[in-house]
Design brief:
215 residues, alpha+beta, Phosphorylase Kinase, domain 1, 4-stranded antiparallel β-sheet, two-stranded antiparallel ribbon, AGP_Transferase, Kinase-like_dom_sf
Length: 215
């Protein structure tokens, strides 16, 4: 009743939905055209969109991700300003994985990058409603995505590191970062020490090289 009443008197919903979802090819074309606009104008537009988004959409629980109008998102990258944007660009360049497209980045109070929104619903919200055949297809899709990620060429000299060869940033590490490692045995030695090194290395090699994906 309240919803119908608000529509009847012409009130707009607080969280307007994106009416048209553009396909990826169109998004890439618009991105190329958008980058013909001078950078300082683009940055000013992003700041306006951030203000509009703060009034139209709820803030994320992390406080670092902001939904914007026109099917965009902005994310503050405090600890790793280059890594996430570069990762999205690598995924776009080398895979067919459905992922947000990197649109732009700029330096605000913190480094910020702009990306497109992904259509659909979070898996956790609908997983319990999936049929067995749909869950099987989900497993196959995830297997395909992992295989494609593994095929992205490593342009750095490190086996473990971020997208440009720097240390890994993850809140699960006590210090917030994990140093880069040239080989798998280096990260095992660092994590487990010399006592369990050989046993853990053997297990990790089996997992890394011999375990089939999708099981």
């Amino acid at each position: 009743m309240l919803k119908n009443e608000s529509l009847r008197v012409g009130r707009r919903p607080r969280y307007p939905l994106l009416i048209v979802q553009l396909n990826v090819a169109t998004q890439k074309t618009l991105r190329s055209l958008w980058h013909l606009v001078p950078r300082f104008i683009r940055v000013q537009c992003y700041r306006v969109l951030l203000k509009l988004g703060s009034h139209c959409y709820p803030r994320s629980f992390t406080g670092l991700v902001y939904r914007l109008p026109f099917g965009l998102y902005a994310k503050e990258c405090n600890r790793s300003p280059r890594n996430e944007a570069e990762t999205l660009q690598l995924v776009e360049q080398y895979t067919s994985i459905p992922a947000p497209l990197w649109v732009d980045d700029y330096q605000g109070t913190h480094p910020v990058f702009i990306m497109t929104a992904m259509p659909g619903q979070p898996l956790e919200a609908v997983f319990h409603r999936l049929s067995y055949s749909e869950r099987e297809q989900l497993s196959k899709d995830l297997k395909s995505f992992l295989l494609q990620l593994r095929c992205i060429p490593n342009q750095t000299s490190y086996c473990f590191g971020n997208s440009h060869g720097g240390p890994l940033n993850d809140h699960r590490f006590p210090s917030g970062t994990c140093e880069r490692f040239p080989e798998i045995q280096d990260i095992i030695r660092d994590a487990f020490g010399e006592g369990n090194y050989e046993e853990e290395l053997k297990a990790e090699r089996l997992l890394w090289y011999d375990t089939p994906l999708g099981i």
